[in-house]
From TrEMBL, chain A:
It comes from Aquicoccus porphyridii. CDD domains: OmpA_C-like. The gene is pal. Part of the Tol-Pal system, which plays a role in outer membrane invagination during cell division and is important for maintaining outer membrane integrity. This is Peptidoglycan-associated lipoprotein. GO terms for biological process: cell division.
TrEMBL record, chain B:
It comes from Aquicoccus porphyridii. Residues 138-152 have a biased composition (Low complexity). Gene3D superfamilies: 3.30.1150.10. It comes from the Bacteria. Residues 165-183 have a biased composition (Basic and acidic residues). This is Energy transducer TonB. Residues 53-231 are annotated as: Disordered.
Length: 169, 361, 442
């Protein structure tokens, strides 16, 4: 069984929280809570919940065209992620790198990897253990915004930190 | 009625015979070859997908068997021993063991999705296509005009316009020259186009301009005989022309009067219009020289023959020769328009078909 | 003296420029033709003659596919039946060249079809109408009714080859990614079809993202990138039985952009580790891996020269994406692309003479070709977004992905002749991207 599938199953099976649905990579912050028993504990107001991580801290950072440089805003978000991850040591993460549609498939895959890696390096520099952090790139294959304008492109050039259960470690 | 048919038949046969001239009319049965094609159908593919192993691959080669059916091609062809009904013996092909049971077994091709109809090709929306090389298509049309242009330039000036080898080079830029015979004054402005040597703009990148024709290449001597071989001749004849006396040619050994510059250009133009070149083909890498024999009425005396071919592989050369031959035959159907009194000078013509300028690869 | 020489030189120049009708006196008149017209070659392909009752429909169908193949190249133009002066009613009757010449048919294809049960035989001849002779010899193909389209493509290939002196590309297939669903939830699966879009079949389901399939040099296997493990990884699929396996890969890395070596034994691909992408080579049977580039920049989209000696690839080492050529064993790379803008996905022509590429410039995408040293760049197409060229087996046509703009954007396949003419969409049932053209089938 694949790593990803395992993660999904474990997350769901343990009802740790309103799952961050690792199967859908277009995390739009509406990862509706599922576990009935976890309705309160997993809500966005619960600082230990993945929803809180996604929405209150912010699970993504954005990039300039063809760049993987982290700006101040990105670093602020990542600082938040790092401290959350420090507190919630049960979670591992997969950092997904993405690109906008302006570029070839291959280059965008490589570019997304650079972005994911930049985030990973930053989190490591903030004390997160490297073996909790995996990266993957989707290139331009998984846009969250679909218009062909800069307003959409800007949101698609992103790296998203997706929580996975630490128990899969 | 009957007679009509007979006449028609005789006429046709005669015509064909004439075109095939040289007796290559092969009355003997045409050679024939037989090959098997192993093909797989959609249903077979489905079955194969279901079974996850190949009865026989699509790429399976049908060995070409070539019994040269040397009798006249009969419709029955009993000689075709169809090797096998391919799907008959599903030989088990070794299946590379997948590391895990391939889930792809599931995605069977749904029969209803398999279109066996040739898809219609829609022309792309115009604003999307944005071809960057449309200039190319404009090219052929432009040619003939430019072809005409040189005529006045090269026209031997009136005798009194004496000191002119030099002048003639400049005439192009000074179309006001009155010495020009009016009958040739057809297209003065193009003559300018023709002279301006801007063929150099075909650099790289981006959409290219259509290539301007270079100054008329009539110097076939180089192709044929190597550079310089005919230089002396050429020089002397240029001098002759320069002296403005084309009948001066009669001072040569032969007595036939030569074609004028304009007459030669008209001939070149006519053939250019019949010469179809595919600039992306390998045939466009080949320069062929074709020998053409003409009757006094300007019609072809036999099929043009290949003198030499340069560049390309054999297939490309054959194709280039056929293209040239077709051009000559197609153009010469009604006879070339050439002055009969100069027949001796054009009863035999060597035509060099040089596609270098048009080439695209 | 100088003056004399000058005059003499001038005379030489004059001689070169305006030779001299007068030389007709010493042999044949010599002329040179350097301008031609560029028009599709007119041809006629009358319905093939059915040799028995069962063949009547097939005889028409096959002739129609042959015509579609030939005319589809843009290099040939069919002359309609209404113009015919003589009819072909028997395969063995002599051809009335004059009748075909009169309608300006330069090539004539005659054929006959017989159907016995599941078996079909097609025989045909090609005629050089103006030359008044047969082009090559008559040829017969035998196959099954289910494969009649392939037989027609084979006939068309043979015709193409006899007329042009080059091999054809009609009996070939294309593996591609079939796309359904909206842009933000696109489902992709591998599919294969005839070059003309007929006979689409699916090779994978759409449960995991798949990208950029690439045919092996013999067309029996396909490399592609799949996310089925959660991470991009290269798989190799056997077309005949749809069996597949992953190429060996290392944990924590991404591998993608694979292509076969011309001998089919190795795969060159991109491997990403720690955010850096370089080019690697793996031996399929032994799994031995060689690293070919070693740079902090992105090196991707490698493609072999047909002789296997060189690899062209894309790199942003200069700050923008450009194309480079290096020895197939690695080593120093020469930059070949010189224009402004970004270049990507270079693909070496099967004829070895050109490299096709994707170019991004001033907000537009182009498919173009250049010589292998980077000279003579020509852009063939332009649109909002297009990429991923693949060559027809004879190196004459390029197929690529074009994607339309906006939220409803869809990908589809197009072909264009290397002269930049004859741009056409290839009809597919759904969206389609990432085509890879097979070699000519045997």
């Amino acid at each position: 069984m694949t790593y990803l599938a395992k993660s999904i199953l474990l997350v769901a099976g343990l009802s740790l929280a309103a799952c961050t649905n690792a199967g859908r990579f277009d995390n739009d912050g509406t990862g509706a809570g599922a576990g009935s028993d976890a309705a309160i504990a997993g809500s966005a107001s619960d600082p230990k919940s993945p929803l809180y991580f996604q929405q209150a801290i912010g699970d993504r950072v954005l990039f300039e065209v063809d760049r993987q440089t982290l700006d101040d805003e990105a670093k602020r978000v990542l600082d938040g992620q790092a401290s959350w991850l420090t507190t919630n040591a049960d979670y591992n993460v997969i950092i997904e790198g993405h690109a906008d549609e302006q570029g070839t498939r291959e280059y965008n895959l490589a570019l997304g990897a650079r972005r994911a890696s930049a985030v990973r390096e930053y989190l490591i520099s903030r004390g997160i253990s490297s073996n909790r952090l995996k990266t993957v790139s989707y290139g331009k294959e998984r846009p969250i915004e679909i218009c062909s304008e800069e307003s959409c492109y800007a949101k698609n050039r992103r790296a998203v930190t997706v929580l996975a259960s630490g128990l899969t470690g | 009625m009957n007679t009509g048919q007979i006449i028609s038949a005789v006429g046709h046969v005669g015509f064909i015979g004439w075109l095939l001239f040289g007796g290559q009319f092969d009355a003997e049965p045409l050679p024939f070859e037989v090959r098997d094609v192993t093909v797989i159908s959609g249903e077979e593919f489905e079955a194969m997908m279901a079974a996850q192993r190949a009865p026989e691959t699509v790429t399976d080669v049908a060995t070409p068997q070539a019994p040269e059916a040397d009798q006249p091609p009969e419709p029955d062809m009993p000689s075709t021993p169809d090797i096998t009904p391919e799907q008959a013996e599903p030989e088990v092909v070794e299946t590379p063991p997948p590391d895990e049971p391939p889930e792809t077994a599931a995605p069977l091709p749904q029969p209803q999705e398999i279109e066996d109809r040739p898809p219609e090709i829609a022309p792309p929306a115009e604003e999307e296509s944005a071809l960057l090389v449309p200039q190319l298509s404009a090219r052929p049309q432009a040619r003939p005009v430019e072809r005409v242009a040189p005529v006045p330039v090269a026209q031997p000036p009136e005798p009194e316009a004496a000191p002119d080898e030099v002048v003639r080079e400049e005439t192009a830029d000074t179309p006001a020259e009155e010495t020009r015979p009016e009958e040739e004054a057809t297209a003065p402005e193009e003559s300018v186009t023709d002279i301006t040597p801007e063929a150099a703009d075909e650099v790289t990148a981006a959409p290219r301009q259509s290539v301007r024709p270079r100054p008329r290449p009539r110097a076939t001597a180089q192709v044929e005989d190597g550079p310089g071989a005919d230089t002396a001749n050429a020089v002397s004849s240029v001098l002759q022309q320069a002296l403005g006396d084309e009948s001066g040619a009669s001072e040569d050994q032969s007595t036939a009067p030569a074609l004028s510059e304009g007459e030669v250009d008209a001939l070149i133009l006519a053939i250019s219009n019949c010469w179809n070149v595919d600039p992306g083909s390998t045939a466009a890498e080949v320069t062929v020289v074709v020998s053409v024999a003409l009757n006094r009425d300007g019609t072809l005396a036999g099929s043009p023959s290949l003198v030499s071919a340069q560049g390309g592989d054999q297939g490309a050369r054959d194709a280039a020769f056929r293209n040239a031959r077709t051009a000559v035959i197609a153009c010469g159907r009604g006879g070339f328009d050439l002055p009969q009194e100069k027949y001796e000078s054009w009863r035999e013509i060597e035509m060099t078909f040089n596609p270098e300028k048009m080439r695209l690869r | 003296m100088m003056r004399l020489i000058g005059t003499f030189m001038m005379m030489l120049v004059a001689a070169g420029l305006f030779v001299t009708p007068a030389q007709a006196q010493n042999g044949p008149l010599r002329i040179e033709i350097t301008d031609g017209v560029m028009e599709p070659l007119p041809y006629a392909v009358p319905d093939f003659v059915p040799e028995n009752g069962a063949a009547s429909q097939m005889a028409v169908n096959i002739a129609r596919v042959v015509a579609a193949d030939l005319s589809g190249t843009g290099l040939f133009r069919e002359i309609g039946k209404e113009a015919y002066i003589s009819q072909i009613t028997s395969f063995s009757s002599p051809v009335e060249f004059a009748d075909w010449r009169a309608i300006n048919a330069q090539a004539l294809i005659t054929g006959a079809v017989a159907v016995e049960g599941d078996n079909v035989t097609v025989k045909f001849r090609v005629w050089d109408v103006f030359g008044g002779q047969e082009l090559g010899n008559g040829l017969q193909f035998a196959g099954t009714t289910g494969g009649w389209r392939r037989m027609a493509h084979k006939v068309a290939d043979e015709v193409y080859s006899r007329i042009t002196g080059e091999s054809g590309y009609f009996d070939s297939r294309v593996v591609f990614v079939s796309e359904t669903g909206p842009k933000d939830d696109r489902r992709k699966r591998l599919a294969i079809m005839d070059y003309d879009g007929a006979n689409v079949q699916y090779l994978t389901d759409s449960t995991s993202l798949v990208l950029a399939p690439r045919f092996s040099p013999t067309g029996d296997r396909v490399l592609y990138t799949s996310f089925e493990s959660g991470f991009p990884r290269i798989y190799i699929l056997d077309v005949a039985n749809v069996g597949r396996r992953g190429l060996q890969s290392r944990e924590g890395t991404m591998s993608f952009a694979p292509r076969f070596s011309p001998d089919g034994q190795r795969v060159v691909f991109s491997l990403e580790t720690g955010g850096n992408t370089d080019i690697y080579l793996i031996d399929i049977s032994t799994g031995a891996e060689t690293r070919l580039t070693r740079a902090p920049s992105i090196e991707t989209a490698p493609s072999y020269s047909p002789d296997g000696s060189q690899i062209v690839f894309e790199s942003d080492r200069s700050g923008s994406r450009q194309l480079y050529v290096m020895p197939a064993t690695g080593g120093e790379a020469q930059r070949i692309s010189q224009g402004s803008g970004n270049y990507g996905t270079p693909v070496w022509s099967p004829r070895g003479d050109l490299i096709a590429f994707t170019k991004q410039s001033k907000g537009r995408f182009h498919i173009g070709v250049m010589k292998t040293d980077g000279s003579a760049e020509r852009l063939l197409t332009a649109s909002f977004l297009e990429e991923g060229p693949t060559w027809s087996p004879n190196g004459r046509v390029i197929m690529f992905t074009r994607e339309t703009q906006g939220a409803q954007g869809q990908a589809s396949l197009y072909t264009v002749d290397i002269t930049g003419r004859n741009l056409k969409q290839v009809r597919t049932p759904d969206g389609a991207s990432d085509p890879s053209w097979s070699p000519l089938q045997k």
